[in-house]
Every structure is written in structure tokens, then in C-alpha cells.
Design goal:
Blueprint: E1 6-11, H1 15-24, E2 28-33, E3 44-45, E4 56-59, H2 63-73, E5 82-84, H3 91-100, E6 106-112, E7 127-134, H4 137-149, E8 153-156, H5 159-183, H6 193-206, H7 210-218, H8 223-243
Parallel strand pairs: 1-2, 1-4, 2-3, 4-5, 5-6, 7-8
Antiparallel strand pairs: 6-7
Domain Prephenate/arogenate dehydrogenase: 6-244
Organism: Candidatus Falkowbacteria bacterium GW2011_GWF2_39_8
Pfam family, one: TYRAAT1_C
Length: 244
Amino acid sequence: MNIKKQKIAIIGFGRFGELLAKILKPYGEIFVVSKRNIKIKGYKQIAYTDLTEMDWVIPAVPISSLEEVLKDIKPFLKKGSLLMDVCSVKVYPCRWLKKHAPKDVEILGCHPMFGPDSAKNGLKGLQIVVSPLRIKEKRLKEVLTIFKKLGLNIIKATPEEHDKQGAVNLSLVHYIGRGLADSGFKDQKIKTAGFDKLMGINENVNNDTWQLFFDIQHFNPYSKKIRQNYLKSLQKIEKKINNK
């Protein structure tokens, strides 16, 4: 499938926004909206008012900031353009996309299941979840073709399906990782393969921001119950140890 080069605007240029710009650069002209002054060759910095010229608009901002950004950019989105989020949760962001995007703009929920650390050795085999909300078949095929060319494993899921599983594979993993870091565990000379895996979780999770941690706990409607169940299980295990 021949893919037309897109004008792609990325709003927010943190660690993930910069990664997104890098991996999408072969497929379009990259424009950046950021409060910081971006001086990176190959990217042009623009303002919200310039979004009228963009084919794709991708907010790469903290989950807690997304709804406000969607409200701010609404007047400037071009008819027929694509608005796509990349949040680590999907129920609330997809609800906000439907609420605030103009009816003549296509919308797609998306969660790249990787970040700068997990993608440092390439994207091949990594997952990306898509939740088609209001998007024409031709546009969706174009987007999925790009994801396939990047080597990503594409998974279609509803926002609810995504967040139910995400409460375990993301929220709980980050919860455990932060607990390990707070406990002061560090790499050591005498260790098992299992210990190495725990340290891997510790490293990956703690390279992410506290803002992301709090957002995936607060904005996934299923996370609290998973945390509570996990803590109850630990209490049961502790009782078994003490009663043995």
C-alpha cells in the first residue's frame, strides 16, 4: 500500500514525544508543539494555530493534561485530519477524544506498549494497541500499515478491554517496581535469574516519571481493585508464614 507523506504534529516533546518523532520521521514531515524551545534538526516548532495545516495531530502529554490540551486545540484542527492519543490508559482518553474532537475530524485511540528504554534495541515485535473510534477504513489501513512497517505487533481492543488488562500488565507492574525502589533493593553479586527480572522491572519503571505512575493509577478505572487484591494476597501470605 502506497502511503502519502503526512504532516504530523506532535504536541509535547518529552522522552516519549521525542521517540515518537524519531520513529515517524520516515513517514512524514514532523512538527512539534512544545513549551520548551526545540532546536533539533529535522523538526519544525509550531504553535496551536498552525495545526490547521496538519494531517495528523498526536498529543504526547501526560494523561492528566490531555483533556485540557484537547479543548485548547479543538478550534485549530483541520477538517478530515486525524487526532490520535498515545496514552497508557484508554477509557478516559477515548471518552475525551469523542467529547472534544470536532465531528469532521477522525479519531483513534492508541497505546504504544513501549517507551524509550524498551525501544532502545528496536521496535520489532513490540506491541501497539489501537482502539478505532471514528475513523475511515482507508485512513485506518494507512496508520496500521505504518505500524506494520515499524515491525510492531498490532492489537485491536476496546478501551475497556485495554484498561482491564492494563490494570495488571502496567498499573500493577509499576506499583511493584516503585515498591522495589522504595525498599532500597539494588543489584548484587550473588543472585538468581528471578532476581535479575525483578531488577529489570525496577529499572524500567523507575526511569519513567512519577507523573506517569500516578496517572496510570488514577485514570485506569480498574487499577485500584487490582492493587487492593494484590495487597490482600500479600497479607494472606504473611499470615501463612507467621502461622507455619
